[in-house]
Write a structure and sequence with these properties.
With 474 residues, the protein is an alpha+beta fold. It has helices at residues 8-15, 25-32, 76-130, 143-149, 188-203, 236-241, 252-271, 323-328, 333-349, 365-374, 392-408, 419-434, and strands spanning 36-40, 48-52, 63-65, 139-140, 158-161, 165-171, 177-183, 213-216, 225-229, 274-275, 284-286, 292-294, 301-302, 310-311, 330-331, 440-445, 450-453. It has 3 domains: 2-95, no CATH class; 119-229, Phosphorylase Kinase, domain 1 (2-Layer Sandwich); 236-467, Transferase(Phosphotransferase) domain 1 (Transferase(Phosphotransferase), domain 1). It contains 12 helices and 17 strands. The strands form 6 sheets. The protein has a 6-stranded mixed β-sheet with strand order 4-8-9-7-6-5, sandwiched between helices. Strands 1-2-3 form a 3-stranded antiparallel β-sheet, with helices on one face. The radius of gyration is 36 Å and the shape is elongated. It is found in: Membrane.
Length: 474
């Protein structure tokens, strides 16, 4: 069937083809005789008969053996044309039947492979979940265990709501504090896909700047629930422009470290062939020492090796969505780079990614930032509390980060840097600023203690891409 690959059959059918066959000379003479039809004797296959049906009494019509003397005039060319046309039509019918069969088989095969590629992970992990999740390294909780841990999903223990569920604070029997995400069940098929996706992604990765998955319920539970490590200090969005935002609370050096650690986590994901697809300040959690934990992998995708992109319907958050991905449905690693560019601008400005109260041209922070940077008006964008106008070193660092963010926010993905380059550049910027940094006292008030950062020393960051190892332990 190789001949029918690559559209060859379609070309043949469109352009036509030539059918060659041999006609016995005796048959030609028969066709030239009026009323003659060329037949083969069923008994003696080698004897050719010329059948005449032009007698007055059809019942006595009889065949005659062909001889070279049969030269009765007749329009034998007409019959020859009929024979040729019949042969061509017969050949065409056979070829067309083969083509239809082949296309049906190919389409069925493609559909099956498409379904299998989409559902393989879910089927595989569903079976593991039914066996207690031992093979994928996450604990299997019952619904009642997590219900009890959250005091029956007490609204007062709510930590936040997302597109796919509500998150509650909980306490397990072993004393661990957990963030319990109870998924909405309005669209079970889609919710199950998000549920299995998070289990699939988080069970195979271990990185200090990625939130850990402790366990989940069975997919047959009355409600699908995920249990993560509890990260107590809210999100970056909370501290920049949310309910924990306070003037001067997040110094530039803390923000710089948030950028570096987030880039470290994204570089690790990309080396692991995973695209997060929903990077935003609401999905970057902070612990009590303001170290990063990237969360929410419900939209994440495993990226096929040796593919330039994944064709998929655009999903993500307005204000962070890669415009090229939105326009062409081509998801790439550079889509995360674009989203992270928006995050860097938020760290510089303390402004939300989308604000409908801003002027029309400034509703999207990315558009606003690109205009300010291009017009050399960065000072109009920077949060005044960061010391941009008073601290030369901070000024240099913010300018460098803004330049990097500008590159990440290019419309064309080919103009954006790779995530490993972004990470390395941020490390260099941070290192240059750290050389002259002094002891910094940040009277950061939270629900427990005041935190003092002196000679702030970030923890070691992402491992070298060549040293990346997967783990199946939470």
């Amino acid at each position: 069937m190789d001949y029918f690959e690559g559209g060859k059959l379609k070309r043949v059918l469109n352009e036509g083809f030539e059918v060659k066959y041999n006609v016995n000379e005796e048959c030609l003479r028969c066709l030239g005789s009026e009323g003659g039809d060329c037949l083969i004797d069923s008994i003696d296959k080698h004897v050719e008969l010329c059948y005449h049906d032009d007698l007055t009494d059809a019942s006595i019509a009889s065949p005659t053996v062909l001889s070279s003397d049969d030269k009765t005039p007749w329009n034998w060319k007409k019959k020859l044309v009929i024979g040729v046309v019949s042969s061509v039509l017969g050949s065409f019918a056979v070829v067309n039947a083969i083509y239809i069969f082949y296309r049906h088989r190919k389409n069925k095969s493609f559909a099956n492979s498409n379904v299998n590629s989409r559902s393989f992970a879910s089927d595989f992990f569903s079976k593991d979940l039914e066996r207690g999740s031992q093979n994928i390294g996450v604990q299997h909780f019952t619904y009642s265990e997590l219900e009890e841990a959250t005091n029956y999903f007490d609204p007062s223990k709510g930590l936040g709501k997302g597109g796919f569920g509500t998150v509650y604070f909980g306490k397990l029997h072993d004393g661990r504090s957990v963030a319990v995400k109870r998924l909405y069940m309005k669209n079970y098929k889609r919710v199950l896909e998000q549920f299995m996706n998070e289990v699939h992604i988080l069970a195979r990765l271990v990185h200090r700047n990625l939130v850990s998955l402790y366990g989940c319920t069975s997919r047959h539970s009355r409600v699908l629930i995920l249990a993560y490590e509890y990260v107590s200090n809210g999100t970056v969005a909370d501290h920049l422009n949310g309910n924990q935002a306070k003037h001067g609370k997040l110094s530039w050096h803390i923000r710089m470290n948030i950028a570096v650690e987030t880039a470290s986590a994204l570089k690790y994901l990309h080396v692991s062939d995973i695209i997060h697809r929903d990077i935003k300040t609401n999905n970057i959690l902070l612990d009590t020492h303001f170290h990063v934990k990237v969360a929410d992998f419900g939209l994440s995708r495993l990226f096929p090796i040796d593919h330039s992109h994944v064709s998929t319907a655009p999903q993500g958050t307005p204000g962070y969505l890669d415009p090229e991905y939105y326009a062409h449905s081509h998801l790439t690693h550079k889509s995360d780079v674009y989203s992270f560019g928006v995050v860097m601008i938020e760290l510089i400005s303390s402004l939300p990614a989308v604000d409908m109260t801003r002027p029309r041209d400034d509703i999207n922070l990315s558009t606003m930032a690109m205009n300010k940077i291009q017009n050399q008006a960065l000072h109009e964008l920077v949060d005044p509390s960061l010391g941009f106008d008073t601290d030369l070193k901070v000024n240099e660092m913010i300018n460098a980060v803004a330049e990097l963010a500008f590159r990440c926010l290019q419309i064309s993905k080919d103009m954006r840097p790779r995530m490993d380059e972004v990470f390395k550049t941020l490390q260099d910027i941070q290192g240059a600023g750290a050389n002259e940094s002094q002891c910094e006292a940040a009277n950061i008030s939270n629900s427990h203690d005041d935190i003092v950062l002196c000679n702030y020393d970030p923890r070691p960051l992402s491992p070298d891409p060549n040293d990346v190892k997967y783990s199946t332990k939470c």
